[in-house]
Amino acid sequence: MSDLEGDPPILKLLLLVGLVLVGFALMVDVRRVSWNSFADNSLKSSRPVETCQGEIHEDVVLSRENLAAFLTVSEREPKFRVQEILPQSYCQLPTIEVRAGVVSEREIYPLAFDPQTWLIILYEGEEYAGYQFRFQAPE
Amino acid sequence: MVRMIGIEKWIGGIAIALCTTACSLDPNSEPIRQIQIQQNWAIQPGDRIAGHSVVAGLGDISIQLGGDRAYAPFAGKVQPSSNKCALFSSPDVPAYLFRLCGLDKLNLGEVQAGEAIGSGDYLYFATLRKQPDGTWTIVEPAKDILERILKPS
Question: Where exactly are the transmembrane stretches of this chain (chain A) (predicted)?
């Protein structure tokens, strides 16, 4: 410990300014700023968010009971096992090819108890591959 | 004799607050994601042999980036994996993970489709498909995914 009372006021002022500057540097994420702000515009997204294509079935929502039943189906089971539980989807996303030579279909089911959350199911041919939840930003 | 006066108390308070803030809040801190790959090959990316790092293994596609960037193929999340590798996952592509090794300046966390993930001289890319037992298996990636990763739009 030291007695700062006897130090010149300019020293206290410099100490204060230094602390404020260090604090600002710490609170701003330097790495993120340098990466996202000082690079060129090509860093930012120019690809549209994936949305429904084709027919939309507005009345389709997924209940808690159907979600629980769906989660008992494991990956690699036949597609019809899922469709027995979820016969109709809200809509489909565009088909994609993730694995060479295999076309993937993706179907969407909004949750009845949380409409901002979509269940997305991916099929490859007649096989159920897996699911994910997408959290939609409120409009 | 030590006697704290007003300004010293204030400075001390700021210092404690800043330290607490800096130590506890980092919006980009992403925990390392560990996954189990079904193919249990003896040599994996991140291993060291005779003092040299293994940067890619069986199942990785090696692409000469020449300092260019790699981009998120969909909206998703970039998480650190092993040494100089990242895992990209997206709710739009269930059942799959993408492993990108060799990139610098990793843009960790949530990213939009087409946003840069990182850059480097070489990209070592693997596509991983989820298995019923929770492991991941390396599969052959489609050209479409590679094009999305190499082009921002």
Answer: 12-30
